[in-house]
Structure formats: C-alpha cells, structure tokens
C-alpha cells in the first residue's frame, strides 16, 4: 500500500494535497476582490462620487440661502430662472418663465 511516507513515484504523490490549497487560495482571492469592489454597496469604484452631499440640490441650496437672508428676493428669482433654464422645469415649477 502506497502512503505518503513510502511514496515510490507511482500515482499522483503528495503534490495532490496542494490542489485543494490552491483552490482555497483562488476562492479567498475572488471573495476578497468582490468585497473590495462589487459588494461595497451602492457606490462602487466604477461610479464617480457626487461632490455634493445627497439632498443638496442647487434648488435646495438656493432656497436655504434665501431663507437665511443671504440673498434677496430679486436675486432668488433671477437665480431660480437660470437654474430653470439649465435643468428644465423644476418639480414645483416657477409659474413665470
């Protein structure tokens, strides 16, 4: 009977034990690669990060600036019309265009 201790060159030999280790290393590598890229969540490396925080649309920023008194009503309506021209009709609409 051939054992690893008395291997005489017939059959696959002790090197057969390395194949499961190689496959385990491949599986661990693939899982690690997937966790670092695809499974990272909604934003992966293929999507460019939005420089604005979520919820800070130009209209929201304009509304906050008007509400805090940084800009007056004329400036608000002028900037709102520019945003309306650039991005199309807003959700609330500006009545006058």
Short précis:
It contains 3 helices and no strands.
H/I helix tally = 3
Structural class: mainly alpha
How many individual β-strands? 0
Unreliable segments of 5+ consecutive residues: none
Helix content estimate = 40-55%
**Proportion of beta-strand residues:** under 5%
Shape label: rod-shaped
Nearest-integer average pLDDT: 75
The helix-strand sequence is HHH
Rounded to the nearest angstrom, the distance between the terminal CA atoms is: 93 Å
What integer value in Å does the Rg equal?
32 Å
* Largest beta-sheet details: none
Topology of this structure?
Layout: H1 18-36, H2 58-68, H3 73-87
Helix pairs in contact: 2-3
Fill in the keyword field for this structure.
46% helix; 97 residues; rod-shaped; single chain; mainly alpha
Commentary on this structure:
This protein is an all-alpha fold. The chain has three helices and no strands. It has helices spanning 18-36, 58-68, 73-87. Helix 2 (58-68) runs antiparallel to helix 3. The mean pLDDT is 75.
């Amino acid at each position: 009977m051939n054992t690893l201790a008395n291997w005489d060159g017939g059959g696959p030999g002790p090197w057969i034990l390395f194949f499961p280790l190689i496959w385990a290393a491949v599986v661990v590598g693939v899982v690690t690669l997937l966790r670092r890229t695809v499974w990272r969540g909604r934003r992966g490396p293929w999507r460019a990060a939005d420089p604005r925080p979520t919820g800070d649309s130009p209209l929201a920023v304009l509304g906050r600036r008007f509400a805090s008194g940084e800009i007056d009503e004329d400036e608000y309506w002028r900037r709102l019309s520019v945003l309306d021209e650039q991005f199309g009709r807003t959700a609330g609409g500006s009545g006058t265009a």
